[in-house]
Amino acid sequence: MDAIKIEKAREVLKHLSLSHWKGPRIFLFNEAHVMTAQASNALLKAIEEPPPETYFFLITSQLNAILPTIRSRCQMVRFGPLSEQEIHHITGASGWVLKSAAGSVERATQLKDPDLAKLRQLAVEALGEILKERSHVDWMEKYSEVIKERASLTFLLETWQQVLRDLSLEGKSGKIHEDLSQQVQSWLEQPFEVKDQVFQLLSKLKTDLDSNVDRQLLMESGFLKIKNSIQSQGDFLNVSLD
Asked: What does the alpha-carbon distance between residue 23 and residue 229 come to, in Å, rounded to a whole number?
C-alpha cells in the first residue's frame, strides 16, 4: 500500500476551495494509517472545521498509526468482522477460504482466486522443503517466482503461520487448513518450542516485508533462521510434508 502523501492532501484542499461546488462532498481515505505526517497536518484544519456538507471518512485497521491530533478530531465507529455465515452468504466462500477470511468480505473474495488455491499448496510444499536436507540456494531458486511478488510472498508466510496455528489445535475445532492435516502430520510430534519459535520468526519476516526490504535477502535470512531453529531441537530435519 503506497503512502498517502502531502500531494494528495493538497488535491483535497484545492477541491475544497472550489466555490462553485454544489451538493455534499465526501472524501474517503482507505487505509488511512499510511497517510504521512505531512499530509495529516495539512488536512488537520479541514478535518477539524470542514466546510458545510463536507465529510471526511478515514478507514483503518491500525488506529494507533494515525496521528493523535487527527484521531481526536474524528468520531470513531468500530466495525467488527462478520460471522462465517454472513461471509458465506455474501461471497459463497467455504472451507479454508471462509476460515482464512477472518470475517472480511474483501479477503474472502480475494482468496477465492484459483491461483491462490495453487499457491496455498505450493506454500505447504515450500515449508516441507525447508525441513529437508536442501541448501538455501536450491530452495531460493525453486521458489524464486513466489518470492518476487510481495503479495504471493505475504500469502506464503501467512499460510505457514496458519498451518502452525492449526497444529496447536490438534483434536479441537477451528482449524483453517483442515484438508491439509495429512500433509503436515509429521509436525505434530515436534516440541511446542520449535513450532512457537518458527511462528515468531515468521511474524518477524512479515513485519520486515512491510518495510520494503529486499525480498531475496529477507527470505535467504529467513530460511537459515528457520533451519537453525529446527536443527537446534535435534533430529527434526528428517520429517516430511509429502
From this structure: 61
Interacting residues of 182 by C-beta distance below 8 A, sequence separation 6+: none
pTM, 2 dp: 0.68
Mean pLDDT over each residue of the chain, to the nearest integer: 86
Alpha carbon 97 to chain centroid, angstroms: 15
Higher pLDDT, 44 or 173: 44
Domain edges within the chain: 6-71, 113-231
d(CA 168, CA 51): 54
Region 196-208: mean pLDDT is 89
> pLDDT digits over 173-186, tens only?
889 998 988 887 76
6-71 CATH fold: Rossmann fold (3.40.50)
Q: Counting Cβ atoms within 10 Å, is residue 210 exposed (0-12), middle (13-18) or buried (19+)?
A: exposed
Helix axes 215-231, 192-209, angle to 10 degrees: 170
Grid-cell match 541448501, residue found = 135
Burial class (CB in 10 A: 0-12, 13-18, 19+), 222: buried
* pLDDT surpasses 50 at 237: no
The answer to whether the CB of 221 falls within 8 A of the CB of 140 is no
